[in-house]
Amino acid sequence: MATKDAPPRWDRKMQQRLARGEAAALGELYDRFASLVHGLAHRVLGDERAADNITREVFAHVWQSPESYDPKQGPLRSWIATLTHRLAVQRLRATETAALALDCGGTTEELERKVRSASVAARADYIVTSMPTPLRAALELAYFQRRDYRQAAADLGVTEDEARRRLRLGLQLLSTAHDAGLSGTPPEYGGAR
């Protein structure tokens, strides 16, 4: 039986394969996480070309430095999301700082507000796509279809108590996106930078 702290087997094997230089492993990793990486980068940067560049940078980093992933710190998915977030925020800051230097208007406070806002939005997207399907389904009913917990319970075929529990848990998870944006440190992967 695996210990609670043991990373998923797939994560460990993937890291080992990358460390051996298996190109097929990189392709498999890309197939599995490219949409996550691109989506997070696009959410932070709001630019398709910049998101493409960040996606290339993330996978180049993973290929060149697979040992920088520490399975004890969390899942590979979270590490990749954190790496993406960090690189995208760095790119956003560099782009906006360059615009400030050219005196295109704006202040450093506005820049930091924009970075925080983009970070919160990207983290919220990551949380929603990563949460268990029952929680996501309850939140989608409540948010997009304006269902209350009684209606959500009926639509989901669960008790009202279970619908309330799912909505509460989903909202609690989403609230961590805002908390992370305020601190500036993404909480996934232990907040590692």
From TrEMBL:
InterPro entries: RNA_pol_sigma-70-like, RNA_pol_sigma-70_dom, RNA_pol_sigma70_r2, RNA_pol_sigma_r2, RNA_pol_sigma_r3/r4-like, WH-like_DNA-bd_sf
Domain named RNA polymerase sigma-70 region: residues: 29-94
Keyword Transcription regulation on entry: yes
Protein name, per record: RNA polymerase sigma factor
Organism superkingdom: Bacteria
Keyword line: Sigma factor, Transcription, Transcription regulation
Pfam families, sorted: Sigma70_r2
Keyword Transcription: yes
Membership in a protein family: Belongs to the sigma-70 factor family. ECF subfamily.
GO molecular-function terms, A-Z: sigma factor activity
Biological-process GO terms, alphabetical: DNA-templated transcription initiation
